[in-house]
Design a protein that fits this description.
single chain, alpha/beta, eight-stranded mixed β-sheet, 8 strands
Length: 306
Amino acid sequence: MIRHAFLALAAMSTPVMAQTPAIPPAKLLTWPDLTKRPKPMPDATVDYGTDQMQKVDVWLPKGKAKAPFPVVVMVHGGCWTTSIADRSLMNWIADDLRNAGVAVWNIDYRGVDRTGGGYPGTFADAAKAADQLKISAKTFNLDTRRVLAIGHSAGGHLALWLAARPKVPASSALHTAHPLRIRHVISLGGLPDLEATATNANNGCGTEVVAKLVGAPTPQRPDVYAETSVPRLLPLGVEQDLINGREDRIIPFVMATDYVAKATAAGDTATLHTIPATGHVELIAPETPAWAKARRLILAYVGKTR
């Protein structure tokens, strides 16, 4: 199954891309192509809880960049599963943004495979990690008026969900009175629609993980998607960009096209950017056209040029 490609990320042993007639697999990046290169390191790490996954890495611009810095809330993927990936998978693009004058708030969270993960823990962790930015903003000279979220794969879902938090009903365990305001979201090969993910066996995470993420229905909470799946919370009222590789065999392309259609119909501004000759790994490798597109969108948002 394609899900094995994601499990290979944890083992760092086998390529994740299935062969396609149009694009030879050697021309698509594998996980080791990314993870075996020298890894840049963050400037600081902040704890927002006691679990070893309840941490945020902070990446700060140097040189001529002027504080307070615009900041990207970054969310890693890995099928919402800690054993598959953690925040360090995003280090290379975090470093690229740091060098471009943009601060990065790279969050981690308990996956569905950890005690306290799933519902509500995974969502609560992502929310608390994002809100910690408001608490730590002065310490790191971060501009909370210019916050953009970016997420890869399952992190694309969480990045969009973080922007949707004002729509979470007050009766929900996931409700926060004054969440961090996110003004723009970029999803890199994301899985925003949990209902669609749970019924599409072609997605690289499989379908079983969604049930672990959203929890079991109860009489008090019969609809487990109402507060967890992004399309149920539309319109978000923020600009959304989805960047997807046309040769991505991990995340079905229909996940992006269907979500953009729903978001647009709800009145949001949602744009799909299709990158040719691109798989799933390229989306978070700093030398690729896919990341170049994301970087341009980020820099345009924060009012910078390069």
